[in-house]
Structures are given as structure tokens and as C-alpha cells.
Design brief:
Number of helices: 10
Number of domains: 1
Distance between the termini: 17 Å
Radius of gyration: 18 Å
Low-confidence stretches: none
Number of strands: 0
Largest sheet: none
Amino acid sequence: MSRVTNIENFARAGYLGRAVVYGLAGYLTLTTAGSTGTTGVLEEIETMSAGAILLALVGLGLLGYGIFRLYGAAMDLQGNGTDAKGLAIRIGHAASGLAHIFLCYLAFKAVLGWPSGSTGDGESAGQAAGTLASMPMGDVLLGVIGIGFIAAAINQAVKAYTAKFMGLLDADAPALAKYVGQAGYAARAVIFAVLGWQITSAALSGDTGNVGGVGQVLDSLRSTNWLYIAVAIGLLLFGLFSLVMARYRRIRNEDVLERLKS
């Protein structure tokens, strides 16, 4: 099996795992009293019938997506280049890969019954922010991370507006995928923007108490009911869009094949 075929399999399995996480996050946020972040989704899966098996499969999918993102960043699968903009995009893809591998770790940690030091993504995010802020130059690093999330939010918003992601799909992908993807990326833009604002504010004030994960971000939107519902629906649709990506994402291209042959 060629390296291209291997990475294609990793990618498609990864998009399936991502679909489960985002789809359940949106669904649970709409149908339960509390807001559910990414780690909360993993905890919810664990309680289901045959949850350990499903959690292991989701974990493998997240691992596949993480490997795909890291490999894609290293090999420049999307041809972003080596200028400042291209390197920034590739670093973002690598960071996404590491984040999904961490989610895989959390999934298998639950499957294997390892003790957890945190009760959710909000607590773990707050602890991480507090630890970082206490380090030398920690407030500066925290500010850089916050700005990074704000930049990511802008990037997600641009994707939602331009729908350039359709260029990654095969020509026979359903036309409705454009609108589903736009809603999903818009929801992610809102979440990343709020996360970025929380982290940047913590860096400026020294108070990391308001830094949380995705679930806490969603809770902060409850006071604006229409936005809360819109973001929850957007997360659900991003899960659906991930299914479309699993089926129709165009991973092979001539440039990549030539680079791998060289």
C-alpha cells in the first residue's frame, strides 16, 4: 500500500471520528440542560451501550485525523508553500493534529479506566491557563495563544464566507455541502473568538478563572439565546460536513504524488 493510500485511509477515518465528536457536541447541547464540550462528548459516549467499543473507534478516528494533519503539515499536502502565510497555515494544521491526538489520548484513557485529574474540558483548560500564567513570561505566552485563537476564528470566518473548502471536495459532492460547511465553520469561528477573548483577557488581567473549554464557551452564550442555538446547530452541521469530507474529500493530487516520488 502506497504512502498516499495510507494517509488517505488515516484522513477518512479521522473525518469520521471528527463527525461523531462535533455531531454529538451539537446534538447534546441542543437537547440537554448543560453545554457539552469535546471532552464532555467523550464522557457521554462512555456511558452509552457498548460505549467502550464506540469510544475506542472514535479514538482511532481522532488519531487518524491527527496523523493526517501532522503529515499534511510536514509534507505540505495542500501546497501552502514556505512563505510566512504558508508556514502559518501549516503550523495551524500541525496544532490541529496535536489537539486531535490529545483527544484520542483522552478517549483511550477512559476506555482503559485510567484515573482522570479533571472533570471536563473547562476545568482542564482553566488549570492549563493558570499553570502557564504562573511561569516566567507566562502572561506573554498566554496572550500569544489567545491571539492565535482569534486569528483562527478569523480564518474560520473567512472559510465560512468564501466556501473555499469546496475546492477540497470531489466534483460529485452534494451541492448542499457548501451551506452545511459554511454553517459549521461559522459556529467554530464564534467558539474560537470567545476562547481567544477569554485567554487574551486572562493574559492582560492575570485572572485565569474565566478561561474554559468549548462547553464553558457555549454556556457563556446562553444569555443570547438565538446565538447559543445557532452555534449548537452549527456544531451539529459541522459533524455532518465532516461525514461529507470523509466521503468526498479529494486527498490525492498530482503535486502530492510527485513530491512523494521524489
